Amino acid sequence: MRRFILLIVCVIAVFSTNAQDRRDQFEITDSMRQDLLDFLNDGTNLTLDIYQNDKSKLDTLIVRKRRIQEGPIKSHLKFMGVEMSGSIENFVQTLIQKKKLKLLYHDKNSKTRLLKGSFSGFECMIAVYPNKNNTVGRVTVALPSADNWSDLESEYSLIQTGLIRKYGNPMTEYKHFKQVDPSDTGKFMELMNNECNYGSTFLLSEGSILLSMQKDEANFLSAFVILMYVDISSLREAKNAITDDL
Fold it and tell me: What is the pLDDT of residue 22?
């Protein structure tokens, strides 16, 4: 019942805050952003702190990243079984029709769509962002909010286990806290104060999937698990479209 009420609050927030506020709900954390930048920047070596004492893992990650970036495009990343390809309009309509998602909001300026529906057994908020050429750029999923670390970690672990079962172990994983061995209450407070990074990144030939936690800006007493799907093929196509116009 508590989660249902929190979800209603989250839905109401869609209409009670402006578009920028809602987009901020799906912004990635610094650690996720670093992983994403390292993944997207061609020819750049990774300098992730979590690998500085493990050269073999760092070398493996660099090699795999370069293979993904420089290799031939074979297929698109899939979200809920739907290819992240083509126009954002067609992609969203397919999710609505085949996956029974409901469109909550359409930002006419950024062309971002906010949807709601069932995802991996949770009632989630789902945001779809376009590339500059109006193709599907990335998809983020926000699981139901939680007001304690135990529930939050349970949701995170369930999603991560499913991702590992489908895609294998993550290429990066970080669980960084300011305090040494904090209690669950301490962990939650650090998350709410932006003092911890907790997440993992799955690098695939089709793109990347980033899993993390972040505080809920619409409800300062809670936080949620967030997933981001980034399709490398669509990003390449968008880059090529921009270059062709120059």
Answer: 37
